[in-house]
Each structure stands twice: as structure tokens, then as C-alpha cells.
Write a structure and sequence with these properties.
This protein is of the alpha+beta class and about 325 residues long. The chain is built from ten helices and twelve strands. The chain has a five-stranded mixed sheet with strand order 7-8-9-6-10, with helices on both faces. Strands 5-12-11 form a three-stranded mixed sheet, covered by helices on one side. Strand 7 (about 180-185) and strand 8 (about 190-195) form a beta hairpin. The longest helix is centred in the middle third of the chain and has 23 residues, at about 100-120. The protein starts with about 30 loop residues before the first strand and ends in a 26-residue tail after the last helix. It binds zinc ion. Zinc ion (ZN) binds next to helix 2.
Length: about 325
């Protein structure tokens, strides 16, 4: 019989090096799993690459590990990493043919692993963070909800009619691109992006695919196309900004089952009556986001907002079709 009980470390704030991050089993401090798969660290030479943490401390991709029991490591994490590694060998086709639920779990593990690292650190009396995540009840509520669906990695779980995130897979034009790997995540907005060679995955966790729907027309335009890096950066800005103004947290409910059930079925509900799903679009805030993403091209806010109601775009032309960016345009 599979184990169908979900683990909740949030009620007692059980974030220590002696509890598996995924199932809560008591472990030794030597039992850990890397947040970033070993294969990825090797392939993109990440082991000594620096990573800025929320509390502004610096670690490396190689150093970032989280407490994990042998069972979860061997039976849940390693097979997932293997699956993504194999898919990534086949580039865009490989990644696109993955089950989106597996991509969700993979991204979710990196996201949650980074978060858990923060929460464990905040328990250290010598570390006094300015804005501790562990004291932000609203955020903790969101993370608790997130861990419910992330546990699909360990507990057989069916999502009834939703995916707990929005995933976008983009291709970069290799002749315009020199960056082998890039990684970005935002703890509070749950926006995430990772670049593996010519493939960029952009994701907003815990929105039940709403942002994917909102951006579906634009996303469709990019299908089968190799984008200029400036277009990828803009697409990321759109997703990250949508995540920033996203204003609701889904609720997940476990369907009442029978003792002999072999899996959980989760239903979901978004309360869009008490709250608007999105806060209003603000051109200036969007321009800031875009300016940040366009840093390599030094395009400033003033230029982006020359027509405030139509921020500068390299994605679509006046007919709403995908723009072709010529090699020397920028
Ligand atoms: Zn475990």
C-alpha cells in the first residue's frame, strides 16, 4: 500500500537538518540531497558558481543541499532528475515531451529547496534576518499550500482538472545566444526560470495555469520558433510581472477516499469572488521589470515607456505577429 499521508512541517515549523524535507522522517545531518541535480551541476559547470540567497549571503550551486531521507532521495528525487536529464539531452523536443507534472515537480523541488534552506537558517539564533520569511504568516500559508501539491513527488497524487502552475517552454536562437545556463527565482511571487542550453523554461508556481491562459496567444506565437534572447527576456518579464500582480492562492482539497485507495485525488478552487485574480496592470512597474530583464541590452525605462500605454516590445509587431529580430538590430 502506498503511503498517502501528506507531511506538514508548517504547523510546528519543523525545519531542521534532522527532518527529511519531503516526508519528515527523522534523519542524520549527513542525509541530504542537492537542490540542483548533480547532472546539471556537471553539465553546466555549476559546482562553484555563486548563488545569492535571500538573506544576501552567497553560496554555490554545489553547496546547496537539503535534508532528505534515503528513501526520498533514491526513490523519488533521483528518478526525477534522471528523467529530466534524459529529456534535456534531446533539447527542446525532449523537454517539451515531458509530462508537465514532472516539470512542475522538478522546478518545485528547486524552489522549495531554496526556501527550506532559508527557513532552516532562520532557526539559527546567530542569524537575525531583517524580514524573516518564518514570521510572514501570509507567505507561510502559501508555502504550506505549495508543499501539499509538491508532495505529488512522493505520494501518488492525481490533480483532478488542473496543473498547479503555468509552464512555458521557449527556444533560443543558438546563433544569437552565448549563455549555457541561467537561473532565476523569486521567492515571494513564485516566479521561476531556468535555461538549459537553447531551452528556457519559465514558470509561475501555484497559479493553476491561469497565467498560461492569459498569455496563451503570445505563447502560441513562439511555438516552433527560435527566439532572440531579447525576446526571451521580454517573455520572462511578462510572466514574472503577471506573477507579481497575481493576487490569489488556490485551495487544494483531498477527495475523501477509501482505505484501499492507491492514490490521492486533489480538487482545487480559486476564490475569485473575494479577491481579484490580478491586481491592476501598472505600466511603470512593468517597465521596471522589463528594464531589469533587458539589462544586457541597456534599454532604459524611459525608452520602454515612450508610449506609456504601449510599452516597447520585441515580441510582437503592429499586427500582433511575432517580430523577427534581425541579427544587428540590437
Ligand atoms: Zn523522506
Amino acid at each position: 500500500m502506498p503511503e498517502l499521508k501528506l507531511y506538514d512541517p508548517f504547523t510546528t515549523m519543523q525545519f531542521t537538518d534532522e527532518h527529511c524535507f519531503l516526508c519528515g522522517t527523522t534523519i542524520t545531518i549527513q542525509q541530504r540531497t542537492p537542490v540542483f541535480g548533480e547532472w546539471m551541476q556537471d553539465k553546466y559547470n555549476l559546482r562553484n558558481k555563486e548563488l545569492l540567497m535571500l538573506d544576501k549571503s552567497v553560496t554555490t550551486f554545489g553547496q546547496l543541499t537539503i535534508p532528505c531521507c534515503d528513501n526520498c532521495h533514491t526513490n523519488h528525487i533521483l528518478p526525477l532528475e534522471k528523467e529530466i536529464e534524459t529529456a534535456a539531452e534531446n533539447g527542446y523536443e525532449g523537454i517539451s515531451s515531458l509530462d508537465p507534472k514532472r516539470i512542475f515537480q522538478w522546478i518545485g523541488k528547486m524552489y522549495y529547496g531554496t526556501l527550506v534552506t532559508e527557513l532552516i537558517k532562520e532557526k539559527d539564533p546567530l542569524i537575525m534576518p531583517e524580514n524573516p520569511v518564518s514570521e510572514n504568516l501570509q507567505m507561510l500559508g502559501k508555502f504550506k499550500t505549495f508543499l501539499q501539491v509538491l508532495q505529488s513527488l512522493r505520494v501518488p497524487m492525481v490533480f483532478s482538472d488542473f496543473l498547479p502552475c503555468s509552464i512555458f517552454i521557449l527556444q533560443v536562437d543558438p546563433t544569437e545566444d552565448e549563455l549555457p545556463f541561467e537561473y532565476q527565482d523569486e521567492l515571494t511571487t513564485m516566479a521561476f526560470s531556468i535555461k538549459l542550453g537553447p531551452v528556457v523554461i519559465v514558470c509561475k508556481l501555484l497559479d493553476n495555469g491561469i497565467i498560461r491562459n492569459v498569455l496563451s496567444r503570445l505563447y502560441k506565437l513562439t511555438e516552433g520558433r527560435q527566439l532572440h534572447p531579447i525576446q526571451v527576456a521580454e517573455f520572462k518579464a511578462r510572466v514574472f510581472y503577471a506573477a507579481y500582480i497575481f493576487n490569489v492562492v488556490p485551495d487544494y482539497f483531498i477527495r475523501p477516499g477509501k482505505p484501499e485507495d492507491e492514490q490521492l485525488v486533489l480538487d482545487s478552487l480559486i476564490d475569485d469572488i473575494t479577491n481579484e485574480v490580478f491586481n491592476p496592470f501598472e505600466p511603470l512597474a512593468y517597465a521596471h521589470m522589463l528594464e531589469e530583464m533587458w539589462k544586457p541590452w541597456s534599454i532604459r525605462e524611459k525608452e520602454i515607456l515612450e508610449k506609456p500605454q504601449q510599452p516597447l516590445t520585441f515580441l510582437t509587431d503592429e499586427n500582433g505577429d511575432l517580430k523577427t529580430i534581425s541579427r544587428f538590430e540590437r
